[in-house]
C-alpha cells in the first residue's frame, strides 16, 4: 500500500513538472515572438524617423516608446518567473511545479497580450511606414547620382591635367566637396531624408558644373589665346588710327569755330595713353595665361576690351564730327527739316480728336519751335557754332519725342 502510494504521488509530481515545463516552453516562445516583433517594429520606426518629421511621426515614436516600457515590464515578469524555479531539479515538489506553471502561464498570457498590442500598433503604423519607405527610396538613387557626378568630375580633371593643364582652381573646388560626401555617406538615418537628398542634389549640381567647366578648359584656353591675339591687333590698329586724328583736328580748327572742336583736343594724346595701358594689360594677361590663372585672364581681357571700346569711340568721334559739321555747313536746312517734321507730326497727334490741344503738350511743342528757330538764326552770325546747332536740333527732337510718348501713354491708359 505504501509503495503504491509513493508511485502514485510520484507520477502526479512528474505530470506537474511536465505541465510546468510546457508552460515554460510556451512562455519562452511568446517571449521570443514579442522580442522579434519589437525588433522588426524598431526598424520600421527608425525608417519613419529618418524620413518623416511630421507630428504624426513624432506621436508614433512616443507610442512606440510607451509600448517599449510595457514590453520591458512583462519581460521582467517572465524572466523572474523563469529564474524563480529550477524545473530540472530531481526533487522538485509537485506544489512548486504547480506554482511555477501558474506563474509562467500568467507571464505567457501577458507576453501574448502585449504582442497583440504591438501588432495592432504596427498595423496602424503602416501608412506612415509606406510614406517613409517611398521617401527613403529617393535616397539611394540620389546618392549614386552624386557619387557618379563626382567620379566624372575627377576623371575630367585627370584628363585635362594629362594635357598639361594644372586646373588647380577646379581641383580645389572638387576637394571642397569631400566633407559633403562624408555627410552624404552617413545617410538618412542620421541626417534625415530631405536633408540627405538635398545634399546629394547639391553635390550633383556642383560636381557637374566642375566637370563641364573642366571639359571646356582646353576650348576656353584656345578661345583666350584667340582673344588675346585679336585684342593685340585691335590695339595696334587703334594706335595707327589715333595718329590720324591730328590731321582731322587741324581741318576742324581751320574751317570751324573753336566751340566745334575744342572738346576733342585731348583725343590723340589720351588715345595713345589708353592704348599703351591696354597693351600693358595684355602683357599681364599673357603672363596670367601662361600661369593658367583663368579668372585673372578673363578680368584683364574684359578690362582691355572696355578700354579699347572707349578709345575707339573717342577716335571715331573726331572724324564723325568733321563729317557732320561739313554736312550741316553745306545744307543746314536738311537738319531743320528733320526737326520740323518731328514737331509737325507731334502737333498732328496732339490735335487728334480735339479742337484745342492740351496745354501740357502744346506748350513744350511751341517752345521746341522757338528753340529751333533761334538755333537756325544763330547760324547767321559771323562765326557760326555748327556743333551747337546740331546739338540743339537733337535736343529738340528728344523733347518732341517725350511729348509724343506722353500723349500716347495717356491715351493708352484711358
Report on the structure:
By secondary structure, this protein is mainly α. It has helices at 2-51, 55-84, 94-136, 139-162, 168-175, 178-186, 188-191, 193-215, 217-243, 245-255, 267-290, 294-330, 332-351, 359-378, 386-413. Helix 9 (217-243) packs antiparallel against helix 11 (267-290), helix 9 packs parallel to helix 12 (294-330) and helix 10 runs parallel beside helix 12.
Please provide the ordered H/E string of secondary-structure elements: HHHHHHHHHHHHHHH
Structural class: mainly alpha
For the report, how would you describe the main beta sheet? none
Number of strands: 0
Globally, the shape reads elongated
Q: What is the radius of gyration?
A: 47 Å
Features:
0% strand, disordered N terminus, mainly alpha, 15 helices
In short:
The chain has helices at 2-51, 55-84, 94-136, 139-162, 168-175, 178-186, 188-191, 193-215, 217-243, 245-255, 267-290, 294-330, 332-351, 359-378, 386-413.
Topology:
Blueprint: H1 2-51, H2 55-84, H3 94-136, H4 139-162, H5 168-175, H6 178-186, H7 188-191, H8 193-215, H9 217-243, H10 245-255, H11 267-290, H12 294-330, H13 332-351, H14 359-378, H15 386-413
Helix pairs in contact: 1-2, 1-3, 2-3, 4-8, 6-8, 9-11, 9-12, 10-12, 11-12, 12-13, 13-14, 13-15, 14-15
Amino acid at each position: 500500500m505504501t509503495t503504491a502510494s509513493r508511485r502514485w504521488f510520484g507520477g502526479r509530481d512528474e505530470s506537474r513538472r511536465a505541465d510546468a515545463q510546457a508552460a515554460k516552453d510556451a512562455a519562452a516562445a511568446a517571449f521570443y515572438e514579442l522580442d522579434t516583433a519589437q525588433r522588426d517594429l524598431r526598424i520600421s520606426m527608425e525608417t519613419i524617423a529618418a524620413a518623416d518629421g511630421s507630428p504624426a511621426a513624432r506621436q508614433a515614436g512616443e507610442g512606440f516608446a510607451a509600448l517599449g516600457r510595457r514590453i520591458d515590464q512583462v519581460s521582467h515578469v517572465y524572466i523572474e518567473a523563469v529564474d524563480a524555479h529550477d524545473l530540472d531539479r530531481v526533487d522538485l515538489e509537485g506544489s512548486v511545479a504547480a506554482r511555477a506553471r501558474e506563474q509562467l502561464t500568467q507571464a505567457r498570457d501577458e507576453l501574448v497580450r502585449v504582442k497583440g498590442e504591438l501588432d495592432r500598433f504596427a498595423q496602424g503604423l503602416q501608412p506612415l511606414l509606406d510614406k517613409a519607405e517611398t521617401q527613403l527610396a529617393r535616397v539611394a538613387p540620389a546618392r549614386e547620382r552624386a557619387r557618379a557626378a563626382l567620379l566624372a568630375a575627377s576623371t575630367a580633371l585627370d584628363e585635362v591635367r594629362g594635357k598639361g593643364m594644372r586646373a588647380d582652381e577646379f581641383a580645389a573646388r572638387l576637394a571642397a566637396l569631400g566633407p559633403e560626401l562624408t555627410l552624404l555617406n552617413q545617410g538618412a538615418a542620421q541626417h534625415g531624408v530631405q536633408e540627405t537628398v538635398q545634399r546629394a542634389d547639391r553635390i550633383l549640381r556642383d560636381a557637374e558644373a566642375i566637370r563641364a567647366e573642366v571639359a571646356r578648359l582646353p576650348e576656353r584656353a584656345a578661345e583666350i589665346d584667340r582673344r588675346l591675339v585679336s585684342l593685340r591687333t585691335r590695339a595696334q590698329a587703334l594706335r595707327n588710327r589715333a595718329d590720324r586724328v591730328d590731321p582731322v583736328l587741324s581741318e576742324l580748327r581751320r574751317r570751324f569755330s573753336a566751340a566745334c572742336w575744342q572738346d576733342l583736343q585731348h583725343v590723340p594724346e589720351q588715345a595713345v595713353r589708353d592704348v599703351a595701358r591696354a597693351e600693358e594689360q595684355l602683357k599681364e594677361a599673357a603672363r596670367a595665361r601662361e600661369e593658367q590663372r583663368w579668372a585673372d585672364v578673363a578680368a584683364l581681357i574684359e578690362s582691355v576690351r572696355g578700354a579699347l571700346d572707349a578709345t575707339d569711340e573717342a577716335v571715331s568721334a573726331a572724324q564723325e564730327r568733321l563729317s557732320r559739321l561739313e554736312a550741316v555747313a553745306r545744307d543746314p536746312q536738311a537738319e531743320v527739316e528733320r526737326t520740323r517734321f518731328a514737331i509737325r507730326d507731334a502737333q498732328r497727334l496732339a490735335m487728334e480728336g480735339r479742337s484745342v490741344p492740351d496745354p501740357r503738350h502744346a506748350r513744350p511743342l511751341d517752345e521746341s519751335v522757338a528753340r529751333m528757330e533761334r538755333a537756325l538764326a544763330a547760324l547767321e552770325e559771323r562765326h557760326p557754332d555748327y556743333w551747337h546747332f546740331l546739338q540743339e536740333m537733337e535736343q529738340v527732337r528728344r523733347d518732341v519725342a517725350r511729348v509724343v510718348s506722353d500723349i500716347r501713354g495717356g491715351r493708352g491708359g484711358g
